[in-house]
Amino acid sequence: MKNIDGNYAGRVDIDLSAIMYNKNWSYLEHISYTNLKSGRYQACHSGDITSAPNGASEFIDLHIPSITGYGGRYVVVSLFSYTRQPFCSIPECYAGWMARQNPDSGEIYSPKTVQDKIDLIANTKICIPVIMDLVDRQVVWTDIALTSNPNWQNNVEANSRGMALIGKAMTTLVKPNLYDLFELHAQARGSQVDDLEKADTVFALNKGVTPFDIDKIMSEYL
Questions:
Q1: Domain ranges in the chain?
Q2: Mean pLDDT throughout 52-63?
Q3: Distance CA 123, CA 127 (A)
Q4: Buried b (16+ CB within 10 A) or exposed e, 59-77
Q5: What is the DSSP letter of 197?
Q6: What is the pLDDT of residue 165?
Q7: What is the pLDDT of residues 113-131, one digit of tens each?
Q8: Band (219; pLDDT cuts 50, 70, 90)
Q9: Beta-bridge partner residues of 144
């Protein structure tokens, strides 16, 4: 994040939070500017930055085994624009996540090293970019922009119940897989054939359109 010149000029304060839930989506604890370090497992906040004239970044460290050992499973990541600017008005505002292969390596965190990130450009002041399933080791990309807080309060602890409802809905959502997606396109655009030589378009693991052609799938098939 970075302070703004021009429209919405002034300091920028984006609050990063993580809310932990168990397998039944019962609240366990949150890490935010109001609770910088957990007393139950290894999780801590880098600190609340309330102004960023030259740019700034907040991060939360989570030690997965200690959280799952305590009974935690889901982590809902949320961002609040405390200074009330919509994300689309902030020239640089990103959210992301990264995994350390060796948590005790002493590596210094740098925003430039975060490859899994999204640009926050919605005309809202609240965002849930991802939900983490620490048991299945999955990151559920949600990119949810909210026009108001679930329970009308501008901090994460006052909204833990609303966040749980959103998280439960997103993690139990039945989504089509790539096979279903490509089959629908085959039915809509032509017909399936058994002979590879007769196919105009091939969907496979190692030829034609593969699951790794993310840009092509996003632009032409979603």
A1: 14-171, 178-220
A2: 86
A3: 10
A4: ebebbbeebbebebbbbbb
A5: G
A6: 81
A7: 787 888 888 899 899 999 9
A8: confident
A9: 128
